[in-house]
């Protein structure tokens, strides 16, 4: 049986006890997937998995607080679930985790760049071997997975779900790249160059908050500080400075919590490379606190604890 | 809002480098400021009266005073504002002395900075709102940590003042360092004769509960209502039955462990009463050396004990006490002189510390008061004292003067002559520091009447020659090198912070300085207070002190405690955290980070989890407010909007700047 069939069987056996099971289905065209909320066996037929199933469905879990739901997760998504559990934002008894052994997902942004024409509407997608054939406006283009793979997959250390009730697929031996070229390039910039880079980039931001809404760790939702007057941290001024300030707030609220699922960057309609900030922050957190969000159950994020003296912060020595 | 601004000259302290009238003129342009003036001394009676008069005449509803640090006079001005009929929190202070005039020399830059600080204060004040303190009852009981002479004095004074006292001591007996001393300067009276009665008073006072062999495990709560957990370490002896007869001590066959009370000069039995005057006079077993506890066989003490009080199964016990105030009197420890290569790093048996020498002089010491040197038991004829070992020496990170070594060295030189009339003492010193009543006369007596040879200079090395030690040093007054053949060398080791002081300080939220001594609230005006309300200091835990000063501080701390607990109710600081339940998503992050356990989870009427602050437990540290991602928990008087207003006053957002 294929991985998908295994998954369907597993979901079918648990569906009765659950409010719904969150998975993926084909979206408005064959290239785009969209979340699927499975409530009946009929819905199960629409379930898809594979390289197009990019969404981190853990984002929906906090919305179902108090109800018992199922969720299908890739390795990276499972880290978000772990982090939500560690922060007691969801209850382990209220969630059934269907874990996947993931072969990696695509970056829609990279596919769009690789296609000969603007993919307004994709006619068909055929996935096979080490690539995929995408037909747009009658033209077929063959893309290699290696070229259109999401950045997070290149440095992925956990392709298989690290927490699950049911794990389907064959386990992988992860072979992550040491680092990402885009990250190294960004971090090598001088402060002045970084400022210039963000001024240009943040002038594109339309403050739609898609990055926030897609983030599995952003649980304040309607009470987000970005839209509050008391306290008034941000004005609605659409300037690069205020837009950047919002991102800095977002990043610092995610310090020690961000699992680098990449949903913020994927959701951004104006292609702001938000993961540059996230990865940079995570590196600092790892250096100072030896902490990686979502890496294991029963961890407490360092900024959610109080210690008089941190081992790796020299407060008295200077 | 109508705000009045007062720029204080502080005599020439501020006005010397800040143009105060110009700052006052600038302040008048700030929003809501309707009155602004400069004043010579805002804190003086006419200064305060001027503030009150202005509030009344100009109909002000907020006051900014730009002067010294709020640590100095915030309370003064809050009271003045209150006398004028305003809420005391409708007041802000700009520190233009410590933050401006004392640290900058250029007048126009200073004036500009002072104006900006005033602007910050004005912007903050515009967002202040009246706050009222809550009143709460206090527990009429005092915890004294440390049973040295300072702690004993504090405990007795508090108990005599009518308060219940719990005295916690780490060692088996109270008495501290003073109990180890033979005689005390400048009167050369017997240490145990003057301390002993006080120790007995502790044991007999109906209001004092004594826990020895005990340490403070944790401290919760706040001024007036602390909850302290004390760990009573297992002594393996039931002290309710032990009569202190000492039979077990005589019969104990395990005597291979050094005796810490006698500064390791001799060995102690594994079950022991440290000294004859010990309070409580009860035996305790050292679990490290006891044969029964380490190897499971012996039990000699249990066999001889006439009241059968030996209990090898005894476990540590945790006791919780509720107290209203805490006196910390944890004292000091002696510097470890083995760091110095010039004194032999411990190779020579006849180089000893002053405290070891004290035990050799003491009639209750290992030699019964006969001075015998450790190597061969001979009576020394030439005794060399070396002062400032671990004091006034940056190379070992002890740049401070320990204060009492000059005096006890002179005392020991005098006692040496008393014990061995044909002996000769030499003292290598840097300076003689003997301020204090009868102190200088005392050191002169050592030199003039007892013939101690004082050599001004440091010792470069000590080396053995035959059965003597040659002490080579400089005589800086004669400008020569000297070599003194010594039978015994006594190092006047300095004081350092007691072991574990920093860890205890963390439990009590009392900051240690860079050498581990606790920091007082103000070096001159609040010498026994700490920055944690309800916690007071006594004795050498705050810095090296001799006995009179420690006793004085013990009484001073007791006076502070009695003053605090004499009030029927205390007022809590209203600058505490508050949850806006409409914004709270009940994630509980604040509960996790609060170091005081001041936040609990409650449910609103729809059953949603919400955070709630326990007012009296909250210390206003603000950790919860920076943890809460959506800003639902705010520290009153320091809300995000107030802080942001201050930041924006300093770095105005471009939009506002463009308008000007």
Q: Which structural class is indicated by helix and strand composition of chain A?
A: alpha/beta
Largest sheet of chain A: 5 strands, mixed
Average pLDDT of chain B: 94
Rg from Cα of chain A: 20 Å
Helix content of chain A: 25-40%
Question: What is the CATH architecture annotation of the largest domain in chain B?
Answer: 3-Layer(bba) Sandwich
How many individual helices of chain A? 12
Write down the CATH class of the largest domain in chain B.
Alpha Beta
Oligomerization status of the protein chains: heterodimer
CATH superfamily of the largest domain in chain B: FAD/NAD(P)-binding domain
- The shape of chain B is globular
The greatest interface here is: A-B, 27 and 25 residues
Mean pLDDT of chain A: 92
- Main beta sheet strand tally, sense and closure of chain B: 5 strands, parallel
Q: Topology as H/E string of chain A?
A: HEEHEHEHEEEHHEHHHHHH
- What is the domain total for the residues of chain B? 5
Strand order of the largest sheet of chain B: 10-7-6-18-29
Radius of gyration of chain B: 31 Å
Give structural notes:
The complex is a heterodimer of chains A (318) and B (660). With 318 residues, chain A is α/β, with parallel strands linked by helices. Chain A has helices at residues 3-14, 41-44, 75-86, 108-114, 145-148, 151-154, 181-187, 191-202, 210-214, 240-253, 263-267, 275-289, and strands spanning 21-26, 33-38, 69-73, 95-100, 122-128, 131-136, 139-144, 166-168. The relative contact order of chain A is 0.12. Chain B has 660 residues and is of the alpha/beta class. Chain B has five domains: 3-131, Rossmann fold (3-Layer(aba) Sandwich); 141-233 and 317-331 and 498-565, FAD/NAD(P)-binding domain, CATH 3.50.50; 247-304, no CATH class; 333-496, FAD/NAD(P)-binding domain; 577-636, Alpha-Beta Plaits (2-Layer Sandwich). Helix content of chain B is 28%, strand content 24%. Chain B has 19 helices and 34 strands. In chain B, the strands form twelve sheets. In chain B, strands 10-7-6-18-29 form a five-stranded parallel β-sheet. In chain B, strands 20-27-21-22-23 form a five-stranded parallel β-sheet. In chain B, helix 5 (107-126) packs antiparallel against helix 18, helix 11 runs parallel beside helix 12 (405-419) and helix 12 (405-419) runs parallel beside helix 13 (439-448). The longest helix of chain B has 20 residues, at 107-126. The radius of gyration of chain B is 31 Å and the shape is globular. Mean pLDDT of chain B is 94; it is low at 655-660. Classes of the chains: A alpha/beta (318), B alpha/beta (660).
């Amino acid at each position: 049986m294929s991985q998908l069939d295994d998954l369907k069987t597993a979901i079918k056996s648990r569906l009765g006890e659950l409010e719904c099971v969150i998975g993926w289905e084909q979206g408005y065209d064959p290239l785009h997937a969209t979340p699927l909320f499975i409530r009946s066996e009929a819905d199960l037929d629409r379930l898809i998995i594979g390289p197009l199933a990019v969404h981190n469905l853990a984002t929906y879990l906090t919305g179902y607080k108090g109800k018992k739901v199922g969720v299908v997760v890739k390795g990276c998504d499972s880290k978000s679930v772990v982090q939500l559990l560690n922060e007691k934002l969801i209850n382990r008894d209220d969630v059934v985790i269907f874990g996947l052994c993931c072969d990696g997902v695509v970056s829609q942004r990279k596919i769009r760049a690789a296609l000969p024409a603007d993919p307004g509407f994709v006619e068909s997608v055929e996935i096979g071997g080490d690539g995929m054939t995408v037909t747009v406006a009658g033209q077929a283009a063959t893309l290699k997975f290696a070229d259109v793979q999401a950045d997070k997959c290149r440095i992925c250390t956990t392709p298989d779900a690290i927490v699950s009730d049911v794990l389907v697929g064959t386990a992988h031996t992860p072979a992550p790249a040491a680092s990402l070229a885009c990250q190294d390039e960004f971090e090598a910039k001088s402060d002045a160059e970084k400022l210039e880079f963000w001024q240009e980039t943040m002038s594109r931001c339309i403050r739609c908050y898609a990055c926030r809404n897609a983030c599995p760790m952003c649980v304040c939702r309607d009470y987000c500080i970005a839209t509050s007057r008391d306290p008034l941290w941000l004005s609605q001024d659409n300037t690069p400075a205020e837009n950047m300030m919002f991102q800095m707030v977002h990043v610092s609220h995610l310090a020690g919590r961000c699992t680098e699922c990449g949903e913020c960057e994927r959701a951004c309609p104006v292609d702001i490379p938000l993961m540059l900030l996230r990865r940079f922050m995570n590196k600092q957190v790892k250096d100072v606190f030896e902490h990686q969000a979502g890496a294991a159950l029963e961890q407490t994020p360092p900024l959610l604890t109080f210690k008089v003296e941190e081992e790796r912060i020299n407060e008295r020595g200077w | 809002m109508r705000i009045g601004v007062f720029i204080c000259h502080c005599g020439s302290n501020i006005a010397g480098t800040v143009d105060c009238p110009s700052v006052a003129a600038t302040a008048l342009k700030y929003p809501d400021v309707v009155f602004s003036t400069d004043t010579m001394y805002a804190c003086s009676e006419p200064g305060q009266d001027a503030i009150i008069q202005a509030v009344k005449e100009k109909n002000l509803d907020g006051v900014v005073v730009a002067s010294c640090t709020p640590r100095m006079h915030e309370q003064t001005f809050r009271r003045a504002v209150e006398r004028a009929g305003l809420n005391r929190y409708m007041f802000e202070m700009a520190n233009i002395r410590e933050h401006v005039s004392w640290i900058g020399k250029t007048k126009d830059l200073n004036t500009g900075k002072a104006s900006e600080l005033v602007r910050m204060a004005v912007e903050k004040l515009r967002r202040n709102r009246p706050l009222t303190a809550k009143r709460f009852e206090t527990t009429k009981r005092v915890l004294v940590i440390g049973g040295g002479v300072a702690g004993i004095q504090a405990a007795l004074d508090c108990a005599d003042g009518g308060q219940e006292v719990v005295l916690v001591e780490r060692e088996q007996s109270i008495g501290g360092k003073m109990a180890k001393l033979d005689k005390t300067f400048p009167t050369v009276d017997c240490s145990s004769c003057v301390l002993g009665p006080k120790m007995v008073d502790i044991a007999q006072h109906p209001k004092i509960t004594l826990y020895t062999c005990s340490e403070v495990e944790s401290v919760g709560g706040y001024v007036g209502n602390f909850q302290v957990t004390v760990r009573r370490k297992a002594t393996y002896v039931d002290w309710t039955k032990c009569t202190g007869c000492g039979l077990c001590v005589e019969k104990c066959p395990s005597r291979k462990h050094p005796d810490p009370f006698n500064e390791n000069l001799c060995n102690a039995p594994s079950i022991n009463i440290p000294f004859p005057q010990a309070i409580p006079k009860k035996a305790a077993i050292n679990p490290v050396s006891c044969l029964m506890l380490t190897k499971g066989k012996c039990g000699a003490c249990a066999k001889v004990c006439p009241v059968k009080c030996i209990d090898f199964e005894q476990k540590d016990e945790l006791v919780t006490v509720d107290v209203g105030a805490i006196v910390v009197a944890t004292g000091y420890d002696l510097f470890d002189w083995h760091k110095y290569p010039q004194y032999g790093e411990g190779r020579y048996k006849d180089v000893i510390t002053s405290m070891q020498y004290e035990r050799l002089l003491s009639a209750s010491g290992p030699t019964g008061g006969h001075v015998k040197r450790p190597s061969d038991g001979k009576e020394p004829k030439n005794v060399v004292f070396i002062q400032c070992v671990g004091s006034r020496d940056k190379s070992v990170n002890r740049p401070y003067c320990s204060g009492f070594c000059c005096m006890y060295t002179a005392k020991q030189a005098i006692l040496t002559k008393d014990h061995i009339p044909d002996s000769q003492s030499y003292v290598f010193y840097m300076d003689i520091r003997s301020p204090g009543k009868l102190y200088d006369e005392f050191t002169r007596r050592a030199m003039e009447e007892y013939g101690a040879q004082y050599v001004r200079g440091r010792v470069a090395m000590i080396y053995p020659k035959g059965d003597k030690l040659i002490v080579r040093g400089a005589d800086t007054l004669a400008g020569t090198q000297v070599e003194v053949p010594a039978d015994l060398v006594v190092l006047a080791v300095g004081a350092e912070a007691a072991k574990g002081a920093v860890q205890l300080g963390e439990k009590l939220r009392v900051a240690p300085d860079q050498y581990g001594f606790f920091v007082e609230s103000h070096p001159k005006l609040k010498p026994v207070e700490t920055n944690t309300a309800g916690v007071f200091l006594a004795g050498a835990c705050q810095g090296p002190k001799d006995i009179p000063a420690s006793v004085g501080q013990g009484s001073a701390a007791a006076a502070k405690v009695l003053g605090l607990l004499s009030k029927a109710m205390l007022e809590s600081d209203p600058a505490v955290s508050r949850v806006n339940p409409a914004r709270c998503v009940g994630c509980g992050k604040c509960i996790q980070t609060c170091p005081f356990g001041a936040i609990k989870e409650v449910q609103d009427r729809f059953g949603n989890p919400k955070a709630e602050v326990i007012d009296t437990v909250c210390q206003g540290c603000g950790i919860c407010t920076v943890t809460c991602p959506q800003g639902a928990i705010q520290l009153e008087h320091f809300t995000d909007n107030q802080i942001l207003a201050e930041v924006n006053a300093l770095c105005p957002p471009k939009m506002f700047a463009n308008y000007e």
